[in-house]
Design brief:
The chain starts with a strand and ends with a helix. It is α/β, with parallel strands linked by helices. Helices cover 40% and strands 17% of the residues. The protein has a five-stranded mixed beta sheet, sandwiched between helices. Strands 8-7-6-9-10 form a five-stranded mixed beta sheet, with helices on both faces. Strand 7 and strand 8 form a beta hairpin. Bound molecules: 5'-O-[(R)-(carboxyoxy)(hydroxy)phosphoryl]adenosine and zinc ion. 5'-O-[(R)-(carboxyoxy)(hydroxy)phosphoryl]adenosine binds next to helix 5 and helix 6.
């Protein structure tokens, strides 16, 4: 039984999983309402909201679970430092008081294992030996190759994350925060061929992303064509713009897929992170995987965005590899992937999880 806590950004989350990875309970207190008036996440407000919600949320989670936790997992980074610290200190105190082992989890490792989780009392799937994985969220976008449970980053965004680009374009249009779900909804009604949108081109052989040019191009169209809410645009005009923008983002995310499948020969391709809830991304990826003759695995919609069930599963897998941390020494790591004490800064995820 694993209790997990996730407080890296603006969702307070707690979950309990049994040893087979069955989700016994997974609860989330969204802070969207608190941040909405500011058009984005206010870090200090996020910390205070976590502090307020966490004790109650963990209490509810433990009440729903059939037995007591035997392991504690917590997101130690990357994320907002104040927000992370609330979760890390809470989890450390809980583990220390109950004399339970504690495992610090990298938020991205949580997203990477989320496609292997099931809801409705089903156990988690085992990770196949060769997985090609896309993570696309509000803070991160990149491709990974996971070999025998060890993740290696293949490419990442050089500027905005995909979700951030959705959020910023939605904000200019006056749509509610976070913008991804509203963009998804409007794009379903729009014509994705109505307005030409550029496709980002990086002048090298990496599989990195760049979303800032695409975001600026969309914002330019919004301003030039008077598509903001105050300008009272023609019905359907905003839907068309968002359909074209969404298609360009999804094209860019899936652009390297054929090359990566050829090079890494995966048996499964996955997508995770908040943007993996996107309707077009899910259908395009499923279609492409079928064409390549490989399986596609997507997280249940409830587990695409930030949640603690994914942190619990990543913690269980790390604990099975022998990873464990001292609750009196564990710290939060806001910027880079979390690393155990004593390991050189800048070392890759691969080295880190191999320890
Ligand atoms: O994984 P997540 O909850 O938080 C981070 O780790 O960043 O991702 C949140 C992001 C937001 O940018 C949100 O707009 C985006 O995921 N998102 C979507 C959709 N649902 C959420 N983007 C596109 N289509 C969606 N349906
Ligand atoms: Zn996330």
């Amino acid at each position: 039984m694993t209790l997990a806590i996730e407080t890296s950004c603006d969702e307070t989350a707690a979950a309990v999983l049994d040893s087979g990875g069955r989700v016994e309970s997974s609860l989330l207190a969204s802070q969207a309402g608190a941040h909405a008036p500011f058009g984005g996440v206010v870090p200090e407000l996020a910390s205070r909201e976590h502090l307020r919600a966490l004790p109650w949320l963990v209490g509810q989670c433990l009440e729903q679970a059939v037995s007591d936790p035997e392991l504690v997992a917590v997101t130690a980074g990357p994320g907002l430092i104040g927000a992370l610290l609330v979760g890390v200190r809470f989890a450390s105190a809980f583990a220390w008081a109950r004399q339970l082992p504690l495992v610090a989890v990298d938020h991205l490792e949580g997203h990477l294992v989320s496609p292997f989780l099931n809801l409705h009392g089903e156990p988690a799937r085992a990770l196949p030996p060769r997985i090609l994985a896309l993570v696309a969220s509000g803070g991160h976008s990149g491709w990974y190759f996971i070999a025998d449970g060890v993740a290696e980053p293949l490419g990442r965004t050089r500027d905005d994350a995909a979700g951030e680009a959705f959020d910023k374009v939605a904000q200019v249009l006056g749509l509610p925060y976070p913008g991804g779900p509203a963009v998804d909804c409007a794009a379903r009604r729009g014509d994705s061929g109505a307005i030409p949108m550029p496709r980002p081109r990086l002048r090298d052989s990496t599989v990195d992303f760049s979303f800032s040019g695409l975001k600026s191009a969309a914002i330019r169209v919004i301003r030039d064509r008077g598509l903001t809410a105050e300008a009272k645009p023609a019905p359907g005009a905003v839907d068309d713009l968002l359909a074209c923008f969404e298609l360009a983002v999804v094209d860019h995310l899936l652009g390297p897929l054929a090359e990566l499948v050829g090079r890494w020969q995966p048996t499964v391709v996955t997508a995770s992170g908040g943007v993996a809830a996107n309707t077009l991304l899910r259908s395009r990826l499923t279609q492409a995987a079928t064409e390549f003759g490989i399986d596609v695995l997507l997280p249940p919609l409830e587990l695409t965005g930030d949640n603690a069930a994914m942190i619990a599963r990543a913690g269980q897998l790390a604990f099975a590899r022998g990873v464990c941390h001292d609750p009196r020494r564990l710290d939060a790591h806001p910027r880079q992937a979390w690393q155990p004490p004593g390991m050189a800064k800048g070392c890759s995820m691969k080295k880190r999880v191999n320890r």
